[in-house]
Every structure is written in structure tokens, then in C-alpha cells.
Amino acid sequence: MNARTFAGIVVIILALVPSCRPPDAAGETDPALSALVDSLLPAVERVSLLSASRPVRVDVRSPDQVRQFVVRKLDQELPAPELEGIRRVYARLGLIPEDLDLRGLLLATHGIGPETADSIVLYAAGQPSFVIDAYARRIFSRVGVAPAQDTYGGWQRLFMEALPADAAMFNEYHALIVAHGKGVCRKAPRCGECALRGLCDTGRRPS
């Protein structure tokens, strides 16, 4: 049995068992059901790269209640790691391609802009997509490095064309830009503390 088939069986069992077996007369979960879920949970965690809290609560629900729960969860804004875990499970099950254009899919989702999409792609999916934010625009504009077109795409191309496509590097660079923008290169800059002062038109101006 290959990994995709096994993952599919596990997920289907976990989805069906709670909705198909009735509770006992006391209204408590069948111990055998709890044991089954506990035995299958590690396989689901390996596939999704997510961790479940323990002890796992097992409740019996009707198929309609399960459907309503899934719809409600999909309507919520999911944290990036959880979203990536769902993507991995769907890919393992063959429901979406492994080479899915995650950024394009996110941008096609109502309410998700390029900065949010690139943050999910970089930090959650580990794919090299440079995140452009107000800090990057401010810092690099002040030191005289800016694209011909002052758009999100123009700024992103500036970085993507100048740097190797390395997700770890993009992650580190963006974190450094955010830290510098928050701590030093603010809207009212602290130029006396800035390591880039010698390169920066703003920093060289008389105070």
C-alpha cells in the first residue's frame, strides 16, 4: 500500500467513524472508538505536519453536523501553518497537484492581497516568494534603491531578480527588514542609531 492510499484510508475512516456509530446508552463515547482514533491519529499528523492536542476528544455527530462543522471551519481565516497542513493532506490524497500554484490560488481568494499571499507562501509553504511591506519600501526608498514602478510587483521583482531564489534567505532578509523598520527606520527615523546612515540620503541630512 502506497503512502497516498494509506493517507486516504486514514482520513476517510476518521471522517466517517464518528458520524456513523451511535453513542452508548449513557451518552458517552465508545472506548473502542476512542482507541481507534488514537491509533490512527499519528498517521494523520505525519501527513498533515500538524500536531493534535491530547487527550483527543471524540464526539459522535451526524453526517449533517459534520458537514456544517467543515463549512464553518472553511469560512474562518486559518493560520498559515494550518492552511499548509491542509494543502499537504489534499496533495497526498491526489485532490490537488503537488506543484499547485499556491500564490495564484491565494490571490484568487477574496480578501487576500499579495503581501498576505506571499507571507503564506514563504513562511508556511517554504517557497521562495519575497514579501514586500511598508518597511521594505521605506528603508530602500530612503537609501535610493527603488524600482521604476512603485507597485507591489515592481518592488518584488527588484528583490527577486537581485537575489537567488532561496526561501531561507528570503525569510531571514524579510525578518531583518521588519526589525530595522520597526526599531530604527520608522516614519520618524532614528538616524543616529542606523547602520545604513552613511548610505542614506535621509540619514546624511543635517538634523
Topology (elements, then pairings):
Blueprint: H1 3-20, H2 31-48, H3 63-75, H4 80-92, H5 102-107, H6 114-124, H7 134-142, H8 152-162, H9 167-183, H10 201-204
Helix pairs in contact: 1-2, 4-6, 7-9
Account of the 3D structure:
- The N terminus is likely disordered.
- It is elongated and about 75 Å long.
- It has 10 helices and no strands.
- The longest helix has 18 residues.
- The N and C termini lie far apart (71 Å).
- Helix 1 runs antiparallel to helix 2 and helix 7 crosses helix 9.
- The protein folds into 2 domains: 74 residues, no CATH class; 79 residues, Endonuclease Iii, domain 2, CATH 1.10.1670.
- The chain is an all-alpha fold.
- Helices cover 58% and strands 0% of the residues.
Task: Give a nutshell description of this structure.
By secondary structure, the protein is mostly helical. It has helices at 3-20, 31-48, 63-75, 80-92, 102-107, 114-124, 134-142, 152-162, 167-183, 201-204.
What shape does the CA trace take?
elongated
> At the first level of CATH, what is the class of the largest domain?
Mainly Alpha
Low-confidence stretches: 1-27
Number of helices: 10
Helix coverage percent: 55-70%
Q: Which architecture of the largest domain does the CATH hierarchy give at level 2?
A: Orthogonal Bundle
Count of structural domains:
2
- Total beta strands: 0
> How big is the Rg?
24 Å
CATH superfamily of the largest domain: Helix-hairpin-Helix base-excision DNA repair enzymes (C-terminal)
In the CATH scheme, what's the topology name of the largest domain? Endonuclease Iii, domain 2
Would you list the SSEs in sequence order as H and E? HHHHHHHHHH
Largest sheet: none
Strand residues, percent: under 5%
Coarse structural class: mainly alpha
Average pLDDT for all residues: 74
Cα distance, first to last residue? 71 Å
